[in-house]
Batch of 2 targets.
Target 1
Amino acid sequence: MMPVWGNGHWGWIDMGAVSHVTILWSLVAGATALLGAVHFAFWMANPQARVHLVFAITALAFVGVAATEIWGMHAATPQEWGAAVRWCHVPLYFLVVGLVAFVSLYLGTGRAWLGWGYVGLRSVIFAANFASETNFNFERIDSIERIRFLGDTVTVVGDAVVGKWQLLGLVSSALLVVYVLDACVTLWRRGDAEERRRALVVGGAFVAFAGAATAYVQLVLYGIVQLPLLITPMFLAPLAAMTYELSRDLLRASLLAGEVTGGKVRLELAATAADLGLGEWDSGSGRIWATSKARQLFGFGETEERSPQSWLDRIHPDDRVRVTEGLARSIRGNEDYVAEFRVSHDGHGTRWLTARGRASASGRGKGLVLRGVVRDVTQYREEHDEALELRRELAHSGRVSMLGQLASSLAHELSQPLGAILRNTEAAELMLQASTVDVEALREIVVDIQRDDRRAGLVIERLRSLLKRRELELQPLAVDGIVQDVLTLVHSDSASRHVHIDCRLEPSLPAVLGDRVHLSQVLLNLLLNAMDAVSGLTPDRRRVVVGAGRNGDGTIELYVADTGNGVPPDVAAQIFEPFFTTKPAGMGMGLAISRSIVERHGGSISLSNEPGRGARFSVVLPIDTEAA
Ligand code: ADP
């Protein structure tokens, strides 16, 4: 009896009138269908979680199997019963394929060829089932019988001839067991505690199902037991195992989601404290998420919804192309993206931002997700620019002071050609006063004047370029050209100080990427120091060598060696420090500036010192690979 509501009052209906088996099977099928629907919805929201789709399909197949079983248990004729068994093979096919797919996706250790072998065999069984006159399991069904089962009267097979090929069903079950066991053993061997637990639950339930269902079906088929042909009760084991596992995963995912939200809040707090703005752009959905700091840096309100283009529009027009091209390059190269750019928006003037980001595939399978951090570096940029300006000033004043040292000898260098020009013009004037003019001699005089003028012009030009205040401009440069320029400038100074300068340049040296004026300054400083170092020696021992050669590792060495006393070991570590000098009138900035210039060229400067035998300063610069 069961209570029911009707005609305005509660009453009882006799449950004997409704089939118990139908109620029971429908309840189980309904519950399974509901579970399947839940997992299907989950898969719709997370297409990557394909195991949930597999579960939903398997659950649906289970409902189909239960339905054909009810049909079979209520069949009125042998034909109807045979048809129910035949149609049961349709959902059964999806059910067992679903099991294989579940093992493959959930455990991840199934051997593909075994799995496909099993699916192939089930497909053969499926085809044979519909090719046969009755169904896969029976050749002939002569009669049916009605028996009591679970308090109900149900149809079972009576006289029948079992199909020859139905033993293939046994083989397929054995293959399923091998496939599942193999996957579980592999996972057990290589897995951690959690994976071992999974292997045990899934493996245990699946193998129990395959074993129990096969044994039961065979006993029924051969009439050893007289019971309805069923697999639904046995399938409850793998169904429970799959539900248990997936629910555990869902529970874990929801806990994780809670943690992620908490983590996000903490991250945002930390980022704000560190003055960082965080942002994320999903190219698939076009959605932009940004912390309030990031919005503020780009001049957007707290909740303002903005398109990717409007964020891009805030970038200074001069930087925009560079930023987008750099971004595209790093996405192509799968590298982190780093950029420094200006943003300008009303009322805030122009700010410098530095951004660092990374692109990764979107979780939804479509497009990319770009995540990044931005920071306001305006103050740092201003300080950096100031420092650069200061360095330029220093380098400039260093050059001016060096030229100051050369001034008297440079005046001499200039007065020589000017004197020669004067003398030549006087001679020409005298010649023009004579009655006959020697044109040939006059032409020679003009050639001399031109040569002297060029010499003076060259010195003035070198001087002017060294006196100009300028930024570092890198271009392909011949090292020997720099050496010749500087030797022209120090020529008269070395002559007046009786220093012999030897020039040893390796022929056809490749170019370096450098700034002519700044590198000349370095060499000039080294030469002046070398001449100072030998000034205490007798004139015949005052020797300086300037040379250049390849290093064989893609660099060129430019060196200045002298025959002075060298740098005492106790001060050698300090000579590149600013304001370190041992000279009474020295400023101590020459080597410090030289080092900064060389390092900005990607090179290095070093001293090798052999006390008593002079100092050797070596400047190593990378060869300009493009020009080479
Ligand atoms: P300054 O020449 O004004 O002293 P530098 O920075 O050019 O400044 O040189 C720093 C110091 O390094 C010099 O005072 C000197 O003691 C040492 N030094 C530089 N070149 C040589 C050299 N060729 N031989 C010996 N000592 C040197």
Target 2
Amino acid sequence: MGGMIIAIGSDHAGLPLKRSLLATLEAAGHQVLDAGTHDGASCDYPDFAHAVAGKVAAGEARFGVLCCGTGIGMAIAANRHAAIRAAVLHDATEARLTRLHNDANVACFGARTTGEEVAMDALRAFLATEFEGGRHGRRLDKLAPTALA
Ligand code: RB5
């Protein structure tokens, strides 16, 4: 799973998990763009979700990784970007299926809800799984902003 450019970010609650996942990614040979936060001071998760989502949407990073207390706020914020499909992951099964079926491009984790080793396994599965396409591609087309009118 080495060799990709991956953007990562967290708020204060997700910072310890972000540090672990960042180290795992770098050890696997990825180039990681760290959008912050860099210290434990209280901060606002949308700032980091938008920074990471922007890099993925612009093609500057293949995937994004976001950590907050639950992963939920990060996913809500990241999914406001039209090109982003962010999923909150609790295990490797969810990670594999959201790549296969949803072509998810941002993985969100909750530092208060998901253990570090479980999150690492989920992230490895996320990065190792290709989108299945076919009927799932048709369904993704129905998520486009133009399909909502
Ligand atoms: C911060 O306390 C917490 O609200 C945030 O990390 C996240 O869990 C929001 O979804």
